[in-house]
Design goal:
Length: 204
């Protein structure tokens, strides 16, 4: 006997299912993302986009005062790249504690030049603006969705997980974790991130 169907809700707004991955881009500021989406970071996957809100907790036992307010407001972004390309790592990390050069190799014999990336040292981490763009086909037309993060900094160091030559999927991915912080020079209510989408927009 076939099971019954109990779905009682249909799609409320046509063309609002986001499908597929995101282009990854970075610029020194949000202004550098306008039109171009910033410097392309190559092939990879946006794997997480989590808004973090922490409220104040102190309150009187005999009153509803003080009213709870937002104490900290941030964002955690995770993505992974498939291209093993050191210049891009420095771009993502802000470059403040990293050194990159296309120079003579020291440790690879018989190679005149190589991509050389080194790091280590205590220094400031500079925030950058990031853009993540998805294109979904809706009714034969492209509908774009863009996530703009105004000020994000690298949160974790490099992490490599090499695979066996005989692995069914031998490509190594390189994960990155960023923390989005408030860009307090912007208007209140528009300091952390912005989402623009053409999904569900009949006039796109």
């Amino acid at each position: 006997m076939a099971l019954g169907h109990y779905q009682v809700t249909s799609l409320l707004t046509a063309g609002t299912i986001l499908q597929g991955g995101f282009r990854l881009g970075v610029a020194a500021s949000a202004a550098g993302l306008v039109g171009s989406g910033g410097a392309n970071l190559g092939i990879g996957n946006l794997t997480g986009f989590t808004e973090n809100v922490e409220m104040t907790t102190t309150q009187a036992g005999n009153s509803n005062l003080p009213v709870k307010v937002i104490a900290t407001h941030g964002l955690t972004i995770t993505f992974e790249l498939l291209e093993f390309y050191p210049p891009r790592w420095r771009t993502i990390r802000g470059g403040s504690a990293d050194v990159y050069a296309g120079t003579a190799s020291t440790y690879i014999n018989g190679t005149p030049t190589a991509h050389t990336f080194s790091t280590g040292g205590l220094n400031d981490v500079h925030g950058q603006a990031f853009a993540f763009q998805n294109n979904t086909i809706v009714g034969g037309l492209t509908a774009s969705t863009v996530l703009i993060v105004y000020n994000a900094k690298i949160e974790q160091g490099m992490a490599f997980t090499p695979k066996s030559d005989n692995d069914t999927d031998p490509a190594m991915v390189i994960p990155f974790t960023l923390t989005g912080e408030l860009e307090t020079s912007r208007t209140l209510g528009d300091q952390l991130y912005r989402i623009e989408t053409q999904l569900g927009n009949p006039a796109k």
